[in-house]
Protein 1
Amino acid sequence: MTLNWEQVIVHAEDPAALGRWWAEALGWVKVYSDDDEYEIRPAEDVTPGLDFVRLDEAKKAKSRLHLDFRPDNQAAEVERLIAHGARRVDVGQGEQSWVVLADPEGNEFCILGQRSQ
């Protein structure tokens, strides 16, 4: 038996708006959308992707699942994402080598520092 990772589902109050935000932030493409769903991938035929699905309630607590990204330049990427509409958040992480940000609907994600050898 083989399992292929297709996508991560992200509940959203406005799937299209949040999906477009992430597509622009990541440089990904839209592969599907309707009134309740907006799916993006690195390229049309490349998985896994992110599928934003309508949930008619606001986020209430710290996310149980979040995405981590490792950029070439952490400081530059944090500033780029903040300029794009992300915000810094404190989830109790203290002083760490990563930076915790949240997207426009409050979903946390991390921008990691340089990997130590």
Protein 2
Amino acid sequence: MGQAYEEEYWVPEHVREYLRALGFVLPLEAMEPYIRLWHEWMQACGSFYDYKDTDGVGRLYEVHRRSIHPAMRVCREWGSLLLNDKTQVVCGAQGCTDWLEGFLAQSGFMAAAQATVVKAFGMGTGAWALWVDADAGSVRIRHYDARMVIPLTWDEEGVTECAFVTRAFWRGRAVDQLQMHLKGGGTDFSAALSFSPNESAGRGGYRIVTVCFDEHGNEVAPAGVCPVYETGSPYPTFAIVKPAVDNTRVDMSPYGQSVFADAVDAIQAVDLAFDAMISEIDNGKMRVFLSDVMFDQETDGKGRKVSIPFGRQDCTVFRKVMSTEDTIQEFAPALRTDAQVRAFRCALQMLGDLTGFGLGYFDFDGAGYVKTATEVSADNSALMRNIRRHEHALEGAIAGICRAVMAASRSLGVELPDEGEVRVTFDDSIITDTSAEKRQDMVEVGVTMNAWEYRQKWYGEDEKTAKARARGLARGKASNGEDT
């Protein structure tokens, strides 16, 4: 398979050498072994799933262990719990909220963002970054996973400069595209690169520097690609996505840690139990032993008489050689599936507990998997706490990239007021009884909550709009003689 169509894409060495030549130290290299390992667990591949064993006479054979892909299941569950189409971004200015709602809907951001969260929770890190088409006057958000993200400048508060590496195609040729999101000015390509790594910090807004390389590592300049683009954004033009899990693998790393990093043994236990159940059922099939007299015979090419096989060819029918007694004999080994199911359930409970869902999330019983939101919130306080932690970390990333989108759009001529505070309203109806909470807040209106506060919370309106609409509703009720 050619380089252009590799099954997995990792930052090529010539891109790393280019960044080192600029004076950057690459934190990817310390984290890459862990990211590769977590990626393998997500795909359910590697030495645990495909290995070699020997039989009783020393012959080597390949073995494949069956899997329910527990690592990927964990990541997908977190993605679906945290982000969906009902997630809203609300600004202090209603005009910005309305514009942003249209932008996110048109670009399909939330659906793609959920996939980014899935990969970020699996490999520890993901990112969103601006992509600008200056000729068309449009801004888009691109999505990256840990394999494509290289932080360049960071401290304990976060990443302030970052590079993203992807594979692109130009005139049928594969090129490696490096985009560096850097602070400071710079009007031409050579000037943009004539700085030490931290020299540009504090010189103004963010710029995007793009460099492309062919498959041999030579720099190329595809037509229509702007080497240096000044975004006009004072905010970072990217956002790092990480689960709210401390990185205990590499100290002081800007990368995050997989949500299942400490649950690898539980993942193995789940698939060991699952594979054992399948093997038990497969090996426990009934075997039928037939006497020689049950088989017809034919002459082979050498004049010898051989029995004609019949029945299914899956090792369930056997021939008893030189036997005329017990013409048909059946053998059905006893299955141990009940004990194995208990082991499987125990492994699932441990997996749920170690990945933040609680003991009962992945468990199954007579009631099945599905529970109501009220039952989940009542039975699983650990899940509720972890969701809030992850939402808090995710809110900063979503709000940050939305601020950057609006700032870059203003520089392209879009008239937008100052957005003010940007907050994210998550849809928690999956794990909380939103209808009940909404009814409770309605009861509290006029007691502990103002009508405009209710509208601000449940309708995503800014304070000014919420107050105006609340007053309008109050006047309407008063004119109709209703109790306000």
